[in-house]
Amino acid sequence: RGAEQLVKHINVYFNSIITIIQNFGGDIIKFAGDAMLCIFDTKLRENEVLQADAINTYLQKQVEKAIRCAQKLHTIDTSIRKVEDVVLDLHIGIGGGKIRFAFVGGTFQRWEYLINDTEKRSGPIFQMGVAEHHAKAGETVVHATAYAYVNSENFPSVPIFQESLLVGYKIDQKLPLTSDTIDQIVAPPTLGDEYADLIENFVPGAIKGKLGLDSSDAMCDLRRVSILFISLKNLDPSKSNYLERLQFCMKVMQNCLYEEEGSVNKFLADDK
To answer: Which residue from 45, 185, 195, 200 has the fewest beta carbons nearer than 10 Å?
Structure first.
């Protein structure tokens, strides 16, 4: 029952992580193996346009909130993180700036939710990857671009250099957590049955058959599979035809996979 025990311990730890992120107003966009991609969105109203100074104010608030959230995540009790002789831990990278949201796919009404940078090798997802690379277990590193938005007096840190280039700042682990920095806890919205079909369109086909089953064992098993890791090259997010090309690629992949009874596990723009 190794798989069942692994899922049990991971779920206990992830449950604590998810609760803290939600309490700080964050959204978990993707799970990628043992990692997760979270955003702290400005949540603008429809058709709302911000001036440059207002954008910087929003970004300061969200980056600072992400830092506070990260520091709280590092304080999760050891009793939750310990599995026999192994203690699970986190290392966190933070970026800040403009991202693009998109829905892609649509074959058999199966869709993927995607966020990505609007510029190559400069956006918040790229920043996050650079910062995370320099973070050790138990550490939070903020990319230099994102750190420029925050009030540095409130976030003591140590600069990190790579070949004389300033790449980020390691946040002081003793940063105090005050109650006024945490959003009021808001319960997730209750969705009616009319949303069930819409939400299911974003659930991989391999998972749908297991939803609603009572036994936790149904959600963890060992199986022999063939895995395709597909990397899309030469897609420039700054080009006007980027979304059109992205959608075309996704449709081609879906059609090929479904013809062979495959399933899309996830589609994401990572920090590579």
So the answer is: 45
